[in-house]
Amino acid sequence: MTLQDFLDQCVGKWFSQRTSHALPPQELEAGKADLWIEAVEPGDAAVKAECDRAGIEVSTAIALRTRWDGQSGVAATKLTGTTLLIFGDGGQFAQTNGTGTQLTGTHSLGEDDALTIVAAADDLKTEERIWFPGPNLRERTSTVSYGSSGDQFASFCSEIRLGGAPAQ
């Protein structure tokens, strides 16, 4: 599978269930959300701006925009947001959220067809692994570390395609 094939398979509407906890294990937090993932054209102004900011060659970039609407925690706190993900040639990666914060790092697609993304910004480091057990089932694990406080969090998401781009 190529990176383009993998990212094409991500496009669509998904229902996501997430469990996360602080490390060492403390309280478990559950969440659920609807996710919309769409391919973004390389000529898009936001893609060009973020590629320039991250030093990624826009002509080789593949971009996805994600939007989510969900709830998390015991109090069912409402969560919404958007993220622009840019995958550059040679393993470069950039992620920008709705507030303009950019994480940069690397991506690699393993022989097992799982995508691993490692990114950092300031005091934050993330590592995420994404794979497809089936054409309409996507799973993700992630760890987030904050250097100055030593806080670490881990999560697991199981996502079911609800519509959008058909599985290839």
Secondary structure elements and their pairing?
Blueprint (H helix, E strand, L loop, with lengths): L2 H8 L1 E12 L4 E13 L4 H10 L7 E11 L4 E11 L4 E6 L4 E8 L5 E7 L2 E11 L2 E10 L5 E12 L5
Q: Which runs of at least 5 residues are low in confidence (pLDDT < 50)? A: none
Tally of separate helices: 2
Instruction: Kindly report the spatial arrangement of strands forming the biggest sheet.
Output: 1-2-3-4-5-6-7-8-9-10
Fraction of residues in β-strands: over 45%
Question: What CATH first level would be assigned?
Answer: Mainly Beta
Number of strands: 10
**Overall pLDDT, averaged?**
91
CATH homolog superfamily? Calycin beta-barrel core domain
Helix content: 10-25%
Q: Which CATH-level-2 architecture?
A: Beta Barrel
- CATH overall fold name: Lipocalin
Major sheet:
10 strands, antiparallel, barrel
Distance between the termini: 11 Å
State Rg: 16 Å
Which structural category fits the helices and strands? mainly beta
* Sequence of secondary-structure elements: HEEHEEEEEEEE
Which of globular, elongated, flat, extended, rod-shaped describes the shape?
globular
Number of folding domains? 1
